């Protein structure tokens, strides 16, 4: 009995019994006093993996991004990012509200900025203009359909960022999807970025939590900002234990999510009611229905067959594979798609 197949996002996963056991057995303490051994261990583990000096555990990826931005910029400064970025579209206007900064967006292909794009956006040293202070890159790009930057592409952008004296932030909510797909190492990223946000609650399958990584000085300041935003937690080591379990056990299996996404995409490509399909690099499948099919009606039809997906516009549909999507489910998904009237 398969039951509902939830392809709306990789955030919908439930902890496995092994992860729950790790959480249940966690040693905890008061993290605001710095006394939660499991949170301390997760922060150190993340920092070590990405070759950064220190880490900070936060409740969400929105908070790690917003804390980082607030530490990097002053009111009146400008943040440069792609127009599809999560920090710009889906964090409640936090860049303005939390940091008092403006944003200059780049209109790039599938969420992937180039060094030339970034260079074009950096303001001259002229007191009429906001000070360009921070560049934020999203890898993989959520709205860009899970597209990934290679290490060399990120390195090339970082040269422009550093040559111009700006800070460089990575929204790596799904960075392990990119690293696993391209067979690259997290340790190389520490040198490229000043700050890195990684979500435990997306493909890695934890119930909550994100890590912010940076230098000792950056993380000290970030800890203060996390507190002022209300993100100082107490015995949250139970959640950190899920994060440690996920880093130890759920990274390499992301390849299976990518394989399943590609299997679904291969079928979608041949469907008469699909106008086009975005390239599928990782675990996100985005496609456009032809003009006779409305996305909401299509999603209702799928829901009646116990398959959930989301619409990204009147004709656009998104499906995301994750830890709780198994091969027999993929079989049901493709058969249902093929037999859609
Ligand atoms: C690219 C990206 N960054 C940040 C976030 C924010 O994470 P959270 O939902 O934990 O706040 C998300 C959430 O989907 C995301 O896709």
Note the topology:
Blueprint (H helix, E strand, L loop, with lengths): L4 E2 L10 H8 L12 H14 L3 E5 L2 H12 L5 E5 L3 H4 L4 H6 L2 E5 L8 H7 L10 E7 L12 H13 L3 E6 L2 H8 L6 H4 L2 E5 L10 E5 L1 H13 L8 H13 L4 H16 L4 E4 L6 E6 L5 H10 L2 E2 L1 E2 L4 E5 L6 H12 L3
Parallel strand pairs: 1-11, 3-4, 3-5, 5-6, 6-7
Antiparallel strand pairs: 2-8, 7-8, 9-10, 10-13, 12-13
Helix pairs in contact: 1-11, 2-11, 3-10, 6-7, 12-14
Bound molecules: pyridoxal-5'-phosphate.
The site of pyridoxal-5'-phosphate has 13 residues, from helix 3.
CATH topology of the largest domain: Aspartate Aminotransferase, domain 2
Taking all Cα atoms into account, the compactness measure Rg is: 20 Å
Q: Strand-and-helix sequence, N→C?
A: EHHEHEHHEHEHEHHEEHHHEEHEEEH
Percentage of residues in strands: 15-25%
Gap between N and C termini: 24 Å
Number of DSSP E strands: 13
Overall domain count: 2
Sheet bearing the most strands, described?
7 strands, mixed
The number of distinct helices, counting runs of at least 4 residues, comes to 14
Shape verdict: globular
Mean pLDDT: 97
The strand order across the widest sheet is 2-8-7-6-5-3-4
CATH architecture level-2 label of the largest domain: 3-Layer(aba) Sandwich
Bound compounds, each kind once, are: pyridoxal-5'-phosphate
CATH superfamily of the largest domain: Type I PLP-dependent aspartate aminotransferase-like (Major domain)
Portion of residues within helices: 40-55%
Return residue spans where pLDDT drops below 50 for at least 5 consecutive residues. Answer: none
Secondary-structure content class: alpha/beta
Provide the CATH top-level class of the largest domain. Alpha Beta
């Amino acid at each position: 009995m398969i039951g509902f197949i939830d392809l709306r996002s990789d955030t919908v996963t439930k902890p496995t019994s092994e992860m729950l056991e790790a959480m249940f057995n966690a040693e905890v303490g008061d993290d605001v006093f710095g006394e939660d051994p499991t949170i301390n261990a997760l922060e150190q583990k993340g920092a070590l993996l990405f070759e950064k000096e220190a880490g900070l555990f936060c409740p969400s990826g929105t908070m790690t991004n917003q804390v980082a931005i607030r530490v990097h910029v002053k009111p009146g400064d400008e943040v440069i990012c792609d127009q599809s970025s999560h920090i710009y579209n889906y964090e409640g206007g936090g860049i303005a509200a939390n940091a008092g900064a403006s944003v200059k967006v780049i209109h790039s292909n599938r969420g992937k900025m180039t060094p030339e794009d970034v260079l074009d956006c950096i303001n001259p040293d002229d007191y009429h203009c906001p000070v360009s202070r921070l560049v934020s890159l999203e890898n993989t790009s959520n709205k860009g359909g899970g597209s990934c930057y290679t290490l060399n592409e990120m390195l090339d952008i970082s040269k422009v960022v550093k040559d111009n004296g700006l800070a460089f932030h990575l929204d790596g909510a799904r960075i392990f999807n990119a690293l696993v797909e391209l067979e690259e190492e997290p340790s190389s990223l520490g040198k490229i970025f000043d700050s890195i946000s990684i979500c435990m609650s997306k493909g890695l399958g934890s119930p909550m939590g994100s890590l912010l990584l940076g230098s000792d000085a950056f993380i000290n300041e970030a800890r203060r900002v996390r507190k002022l935003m209300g993100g100082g937690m107490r015995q949250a080591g139970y959640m950190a234990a899920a994060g440690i379990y996920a880093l130890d056990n759920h990274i390499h299996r992301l390849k299976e999510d990518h394989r399943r996404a590609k299997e679904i995409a291969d079928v979608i490509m041949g469907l008469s009611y699909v106008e086009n399909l975005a390239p599928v690099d990782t675990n996100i499948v985005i496609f456009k229905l032809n003009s006779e099919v409305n996305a909401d009606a299509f999603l209702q039809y799928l829901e009646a067959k116990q398959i959930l997906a989301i619409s990204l516009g009147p004709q656009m549909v998104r499906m995301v594979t994750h830890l709780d999507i198994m091969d027999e489910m993929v079989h049901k998904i493709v058969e249902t798609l093929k037999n859609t009237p």
